Hints:
There is one protein chain. By secondary structure, the chain is of the alpha+beta class. It has a single domain, classed as CATH 1.10.630.10. The chain is globular. The strands form three sheets. The chain has a six-stranded mixed β-sheet, sandwiched between helices. It has a three-stranded antiparallel β-sheet with strand order 5-11-10. A two-stranded antiparallel ribbon has the order 7-8. It is built from 17 helices and eleven strands. Helix content is 48%, strand content 10%. The structure holds protoporphyrin IX containing FE (HEM). Residues 67, 102-103, 114, 246-247, 250-251, 254-255, 258, 295-297, 300-301, 353-355, 359, 361-363, 366-367 line the site of protoporphyrin IX containing FE (HEM). One of its GO terms (molecular function) is heme binding. Keywords: Heme, Iron, Metal-binding, Monooxygenase, Oxidoreductase.
Amino acid sequence: IFSVAPEVGTYRPVSTDPCPPLFGPAFDADPYPAFDWLRRNAPVSRVPLPGCDAWLVTRYEDAVATLTHPSLAKDPAAGSPEWRAAGLGLPLDHRPSLARHMINADGADHARLRRVVSAAFTPRRIAGLRARALEITDDLLDRLDGPEADLVAGLAYPLPIAIICDLLGVPEEDRAVFHRHASVIDSAAASEVEEIARATDALEAFLDDLVELKRSRPGSDLLTDLVRRSNQGEIDKDELTSTAFLLLVAGHETTVALIGNGLLALLRHPAQARALRDDPALLPDYIDEILRYDGPVRNATWRFPTEPVVIGGQEMLPGEPILVSLPAANRDPAAFADPDTFAPGRIGEPHLAFGRGAHYCIGAALAKVEGEAAIGRVLERFPDLALAVDPAELRWWPSMIMRGLFSLPVRLRA
Ligand code: HEM
């Protein structure tokens, strides 16, 4: 993601070794040595991105300070002209009508947009989705009848999209079309900007139609709840479509990566996998440690100072773009003992995989439900599960925001 080694802010390097590469397949496969170097030598560093520089925050304490800072805005309008010209936002810069959602909002607007969705994420709805996640997982696993399978294509990818379709109440007959547009928008899967733009347009039209359908034929889904709130004037039409779009982009690839990265962690730690098979009640602890040890979100989304701020001793000026490396913070030895060890049930600071503060992931409970269903069932149904390739052959997404696998080839049966 970063093409050149970072300049060091106010920090003087304490290592004479160069920083490991911050770009390319080696970094994608294992970014942790580079994160370790940054945390030690340049914890708040200036990194050159295509078109503009950005600050990268890597220590746990600084990450928490950044994620919760009152003078850091999320609204892209607060970004510097260089950042805006570089077009580094989500691939919807050409569609401002889809960008009017909570992750791009601050203050009262953010609170209003978030309140509408949290009110619809009721414990009852999450409990219903747990049963659905188990049902969909079983159905997907039933289809894996050969000795080998790709658990990303066969499970990690289709499960979250099916759950989002349930959440939004996408009719059965439209799901294939929805799925097709969504898979192009996954930045990891698409390389062509025009292709993403076309799919984004198609998805916006699809979501507009879906909203109209919910107006004329209300269902028991979350989107129907949002439409009701919109009818009462709490959110406008673009905010409604943008929110549906956000739930798709924020809730899909992240959960694909949780399941894929989690299964890989267990395949590489057979003793821990055995302990979990012996006591499935440990599953929530395991999901938590997977999120810390190799979480899906590589960098929390952009933040911009609205006045000069100092974090980790480094001054950042209004508009300068800031990214927080959540995986770097989640391996900070100042917050986690023996941070490179996969140790479910560890005691210590809470991990930052879902962020912190006002923008803390609203779908965290749902993501855990999906991760537990998928990972729990795979372990239960395939006691002899093993990786079918050398770990060095696994291919990782070359994404700046996400960390996940293109595929996870496994042997299902001995
Ligand atoms: C926000 C991670 C799943 C919806 C966030 C943030 C993170 C995150 C780190 C904060 C971003 C920031 O502060 O810049 C994850 C991970 C997931 C996951 C690791 C899976 C393991 C989901 C799901 C949904 C969802 C399943 C919904 C279906 C959202 C929304 C926000 C958000 C709407 C914006 C919240 C706000 O701005 O107030 N997520 N997420 N996420 N997430 Fe998730």
